[in-house]
Every structure is written in structure tokens, then in C-alpha cells.
Amino acid sequence: MSHAVAASGSSPANPSKKSRGTTNFTDISGGRKAKNNIATVLVYLTMLLALAPLVWVLYNVVKNGLPAIVSPDWWAFDMAGQPNNKAGGGVAHAIVGTIAQVFVTSLLSIPIGIFTGIYLVEYSRGGWLGRVTTFMVDILTGVPSIVAALFVYAMWITLFGFSRSGFAVSLALILLMIPIVVRNTEEMLRIVPMDLREASYALGVPKWKTITKIVLPTALSGIVTGIMLAVARVMGESAPVLILVGSSPAINWNVFDGNQNSLPLFMLQMYRAGTNQFVLDRLWGAALTLVLLVAALMIGARLISKRFSVKV
Length: 312
Prior knowledge:
Layout: H1 2-8, H2 10-13, H3 15-21, H4 30-69, H5 72-76, H6 92-123, H7 128-141, H8 145-159, H9 166-190, H10 194-202, H11 207-235, H12 239-244, H13 263-272, H14 277-308
């Protein structure tokens, strides 16, 4: 009995035994804290170094381009019959040309890019066609815009005999946009959890319906963001419009016939026109207009993807 009492009272009589069985975390050493603070400062400094040129460029574009775009004439009129060294006119012809060329480019590039990305992730399974497609996409990703423009010029204009037009520009932009869409779609589809696919297959859902109803909606936000980045890139390309289409001071909606201006081409024209104040205002105004168009597309795409994407 005495042994039982001793056993039952051993716990409060010897509190050090409990403390020895509990693991206590020691304070972080001063050296580790110093290293953490140094790394934090370096991260913030590199972030500021990356943002500094972007903020500086955006500030100069807004400051110099804002006086031109606040005028209603800037958005409503073209430059037909308007000298470059005098006030008046607008950039409606360049906006129309840019939107038309990018629309045709997106109409052809986005479906091709998305379906190719789906094939590489969901169907290729390391086959020879998938390897060849991946290799070609990698090559096209590094092709300069001037090379794509010269290729389209040699094929579309010299070989087939078609005239220079906005559609020829779109063909060159397609070569630049497709690899970006393919690579982005491929990466977004790969990060979709395999458990979602397996759960759908376990319920007897066909593969094509699993892709359209589960995989694509889950990756929609990232896919749309990548598409908008591709659109932003091709929207600012200048080499194709220099080689494949002639400039026009009037509005032309038809990408298949006649000269057609665009914002990059208009900026190059203004750059060549001299240092007149009206010319410089149009140059900076066109640059700010292009930035605003890209920003509007990005915001719209974000809203669409947020509305229709699936929350996992």
C-alpha cells in the first residue's frame, strides 16, 4: 500500500521529471536573426530596383502623353489631310488598325495555342508528335519579330503574290503569339491537381468532358493571364508593320485590303517626322494610348477569369 501511495504521489513530488520530458524551443540566435534581416533587406532592394525603371517609364509616358489624349479629337479623328507639324487630327486610324490586326491574330492564335497545350499535357504521353511539337514551340519562342516578318513577306507576298496588308501583319504576329499561348497553357494545365482528374474518371466522366468541365475551368485564370501577356507583346511589335503593311492616315477596317496604320507604326512615323512639339505630343500620346489599351485588356481579362474560373 505504501508503494501505491508513493507511486501516486511521485508526480507532484518530482516536478522536474515532467519538465525533462517536455521539449522547450530555445530562442533564435543573434546570427540567424542578422542573416534573416540581411536577406529581407536584399529582397526589398531588388524589388525596388526592378520597379524603379518601370515606374520611371510609366511616369514619363503619362506626363508627356496625357495632354494629347485628353482631347476628344484624339480618339475621334484620323490624320487624313492633317500635316504632322500642325495641331489637329487624332489617332483613331492607328487605334482601329491595331485592334483589327490584334483581333485577327488572337482569333487564330488562341484556339491553336490552347488546343496544342491540351494535347501536350493530356494526350501526347511523351510520343514523337508531342516531342516534335514541344521542340518547335521552343524554337518559335525565341524567334525575333523581324525574322517572322521576313518569313511572312517571303511566303505570303513574294511566293503567293498577295499584297501588303494588315492580314500579313497578323500572320507574322501569329508566329509570335502561338508559342507563348502554348507554353502558358501547358504550364497552367500541369499545375491542376491530378486528384481532380482521377475523381472525375472514377465517376465515369469521359476524358474530354473532364478536360472541358474541370481541368480548363480550374486553370482558366492562369490561361487568360498568359493570353493577355501574349496579346500585350504582339500589340506593341513594330517590325511586322514596317515590312508587311504600308501606313495610311485614314481609317481602314479591312485587314485584307489596302494600307492600314497601327499605334507602333504611327509612333515610328512621328519619330521620323522631327522634333516639332505637335509631333512629340502625338508620339507620347500614341505610347500612352497603347499602354491604356493593354491595361484595359488586362483588367477585362482578369474580371472574366475571376467570374468564370472554378475555385479549388
